[in-house]
Amino acid sequence: MEDHTSSEPSRPAAMAKSLGAFDGVVIAASNTAATTTIGIGIGLLAAYVGRQTPALLIVAFLPILGIAGAYARLNRSEPNCGNGYVWVGRTLGPWLGLLAGWIPLASSVIFLAYTTSVTGSAVSQLALKAGVDSFFGWDIDPGSTARSTLIGLFILVVVTWTAVIGAAKAARFQAYLLIFEYAVLLLFCGWGLIAGDQGFSLSWLNPFAVDSPSGLAQGLVLAVFCYWGWDSAFSVTEETRRPEDAARGGFIALWTVLGLFLLGSIAFQRVMSTDEMAANGAQGLAHFAVKLASEPLATLPLIALLFSVVASLQAGVIPTARIALAMSRDRTLGPVWSKVNARYGTPAAGTILIAVIAAGIALLSLSIPKLSEAILAAVSAIGLLVALYYGLAAVTCAWRFRGLLRAGTLQATRAVILPAACGLALFALGGYLAVHYATLSDGFAVSASNGWFSLACPAVVLLTGLMVGMIAKWRRRSPYFIRPGTAAAEPLVEPLAAPAPATDP
């Protein structure tokens, strides 16, 4: 059998340009995972901000929208699957650029790890609804981290393979899942708005009604996390026929999920009390459906949740492998990550490695027995990290295009002032929450409610990133650190070679 994998990391085969504008929307929307966020995230938010969940989702959307504009402008000037890693490194310097690449890479792996458990939980809930309460003598428990993770690992293997054989095929598969889950969301959330017995109040849209500053900060970080994933459209820009399609896909996905989040959060609050939403956690969507409908109709939202987590698993693997590929081309990561499979035109080896590492972290999370606590710990860590790397990209845009301050008020606002304000706001939010975590607990414990544990998780990611940078700079002699990190510099990597013709095995 012929070997289809490129072994020349310095001149990798080009990735296939097979994605259109719609594919970018599908990948971004799948990675944002509206159904999963509504089904699980609304309950987590309610635990911190009570009935002000819709307000927090609106407030968090504003800086994200400004950062999406920064991504679009940077991508227009320099399309690259490494996006923030390349842009920040060439503008603000290699060490900050390395973190701008390492943070989404590591955060995505953590995301894949906990989504694996959520996927297993959704499968377990469906099995119980079907009357299956054990498997080979093994009791099914959707709330168990261990049992949910082991089931989810099998699904991770399947979606990784679909990501290996091509982003376009993966996007087509995700499109069918999205259509179904959005239809179910619209049906049940619309039903909840009409049939719910909890009175609507305009205070739900007032962020200043949140009881405490720390609760507001934690809620905002979680709400920012809810939107995380729209930028995956920029991670496949080298496989997109036109670079502007990446920006279009990101914006369409963002506005779509905003509408769904507001509809879902208000519908949940019309049907359930705050205590109900917080108590049901990962089973929030199933509980919501049961309060509205009888079986078998009440099972539809659970199926939609399963489709959502499967699609987000697949959509999470795809951009993560592309960021690793961009870093590998500069030798900030090892050569295995930049090997492009000549048959499929994808970074197959890196995609499989991402899944293997995510599976390992998922198994480590077994130390937190309750699934809802494991999810909260992962989301809190990722939320802080997302705020940091989005902020870096926004400040990069402001600094790179600072010359437009002389070009006119509108251009200066869009290219410089707005991105800078959004980036600094996220830095301030993350800094405040980090200080809060540091003063929350007297000692360290592996628990989502422990402040030092919540702070340790993102700290480990940052320290690991710096270690990767030191290896790249002083051992691999990466050109990323040797060449000047300026916006005017030549590209740090060679142009991709033409794709090798596919051959049959």
Largest sheet: spatial strand order? 1-2
- In whole angstroms, the N-to-C terminal distance is 5 Å
Instruction: Characterize the main sheet.
Output: 2 strands, antiparallel
Q: Which value, in Å, is the CA radius of gyration? A: 22 Å
Structural class: mainly alpha
Mean pLDDT score:
81
Number of helices: 18
Number of strands: 2
Order of helices and strands: HHHHHEEHHHHHHHHHHHHH
Instruction: Give the percentage of residues in beta strands.
Output: under 5%
Helix content: 55-70%
How would the global form be characterised? Answer: globular
| Regions with little confidence, pLDDT below 50 for 5+ residues | 1-13, 484-505
